[in-house]
Amino acid sequence: MAAKILELDTSERKGKEPNPFGKPASAFVGKPAKDFEVVNLKGEKLSLAEYRGQVVLLDFWATWCAPCRAEMPHLKKTYAKYREQDFEIIGISRDMGKPPLEAYIAQEEITWPQYWDADNRICNLYNVRSFPSTFLIDGEGVVRKTNLRGHRLETAVAALVKENAAKKAAEKAETDSQ
User: In the chain, where are the structural domains located?
Assistant: First the structure.
């Protein structure tokens, strides 16, 4: 009898309940990145819109996340290689407080902008439910790739940086010819 009730209950609900986790990261690919405006750890205003024209990696992470910490050397290498080519990383941390985050950033000499998402606002905006999560955004502000790491991330950044530079060169050539 209980099995029959559960069976009926499940079959009647199937597909009707909203997904509590929201859209997967891949659902953002090909769509404009959601803009946000926050104050970074240095007390400076940080807006995603300010980075239009650059390739941007949104890196959702935390110091307590072992995979995030393992990925940090790859991020530092990619950032060092491409930061002078219109590439930026914006770190969005879900640490339990600012002190451990600030200590880790100082210890690891992380130089890209960081935001402590204390109220989960930006994580919710991008439906981030696990760490690390990344969103690679092109110069037009469109999410092109999600959740890449290591060599795959560096390869995607290299391709987008090259594409972005070609678009800028074409725009400049068109402007110069007018």
Answer: 31-177
